[in-house]
Amino acid sequence: MNLTELTLTELRTALRQGETNSVAATQAMLDRIVEQDNDIKSYLTITDEMALEQAAAADKRLANGDQSPLLGVPIAVKDIIATKGATTTAGSKILEGFVPPYDAFVVEKLKEAGAVILGKTNTDEFAMGSSTENSGYFTTRNPWDLARVPGGSSGGSAAAVAANMAYGALGTDTGGSVRQPASFCGVVGLRPTYGRISRWGVIAFASSLDQVGTFGRTVADTTALFQAVTGYDRRDSTSLDVPAEDFEAALTGDIKGLKVGVPAEYFVEGMDAEVETAVRAAIAQLEKLGAEIIEISLPHTQYALPVYYLIAPAEASANLARYDGIRYGPRIEGADMIDSVKQTRALFGPEVKRRIMLGTYALSAGYYDEYYGRALKVRTLIKQDFQNAFEQVDVIAAPTSPTTAFKIGERADDPLSMYLADVLTLSLNLSASCGLSVPCGFDSKGLPIGLQLIGNTLQEATILNTAFAYEQA
Length: 473
What we know:
Helix content: 25-40%
Strand content: 5-15%
Structural class: alpha/beta
C-alpha cells in the first residue's frame, strides 16, 4: 500500500479497519515532503515532531475504537491561521518568528476531530495575491509544471494536496484564494458561505470578505474536512449560528432536476479557448446527468473587480494598522517611536504596501463617499444579481479562472493583469454566497482546468453534491 497515494477518505477507512496506522501515514507524508518540497516549496514550517506525537496519540485512540471524523489523518494548514506552539507568519517578514499562544477555531476543530497537523503552508503575504509570488519568503511552484505558479493566495495548501504532501489542507478565500489555486493545481477547493466557519484566530486581510476554505484531492475529501471545521463560534461576531448538517451524507450523486445557471458574463473576452471548451463540456455532462441548463445574467459582474479592489484594500488598511513592531513580530529600533514604527513597517512587501496605500486613499477625508461608499452600494447590486439568479436556478456553473496557471514572473510587473486572475471569483465573495472549484480537464500543455460551481447562501450541500456527481461521471 502506497500511503501517500491514498485519498483522505481512503486513509480514514484504512485507519479504522486497522490496515495501517497514523504514525506510518504521517511518516510517509513527512518523507514525501522531504523528497518533493525542495522543488515545490509548499511549506513554510514543517511541524514534524508535533505531527508524530499527534499521530501516536491518534493510534491509541484508534485502538480503543474511537471513530472521530479525521482521527489520525495528516492535514496542512495555511500560514495565515494561528497554531499554538507553531510559527505563524502570514507569509510576512513583519511576523517572522511569531508563535501564537492559542489555536484558531479551525485548528481547535481539527484537533477535536483527531487530525494530525503536518505544518504551515506558504501564502501570498497577508493573503494578498493570486500567485504565491508575494510571499515574504519564497515562491511556491505548481506541481504540474515547476515553472508556473500554483495560484494564490492559498497556493501552498493547493500545491501540497496536489503533490500528495497532505491528505487535505485549510486555506482562506477573500477574493478567490481557495478556488483559483484549486483550479491551477487540479484539486477540489471549497469556499463556504461567509460566516459558516469561524474566522477567530485567522489573521485578518479584509474582514467582510475573508473565509476559511478546504482543499482535497476529491470532493469527498474536501467535504470531510469541511464537515470537521464548520460550526458556530461565539468569539466571532460574524459566525452563523445555524443547525449542523451532514454534508458527507449529502453526496448522493443524484442531480436529476437540478437547475444549473450559466452566466454569459463569466465567459469573458480574453479567456483561453481551451478553458471555455472544457467548462462547456463539463456543463454538458451535468445536463447528461439530469440537470436542466438555464442561461442567466449577472449584469453587474463587470463592476466586481473595481469594487473588490476598493473594499478589500480599505479593510486591509484598517486591519494592518496594528503591525507597529510593539506587540508581535520583529521590532526595528529607530531614533524615536515614529522612526521605529516606520522602519518596522518597511518589512511589508511591495504588494501589501500597494494595497495599504490604495485602501488608505479610498478611506481618506474627501474621498470616502466617492470611492469606498460608492463601492459598498455597487456591492449591494452584485449581491442582488445573485439573489435574483437563485430565484431561477439551484447552482451557477462557470469557469474558475479565465486561464490555466501562468509562468512565474510573467505578471510580476503588471499588477492589473495579476488582479484579473481573480475576475471570475471575486463576485462570489462580495455576495457572501458559497462556491467551489472541481477539476474538469486539462489544456494542451497538460495544465489543469477548474469548473466553478456557485451556490446560494448556506447551500454547500447542493454544490458539493453537484461536484460529486460530475466527478463520479
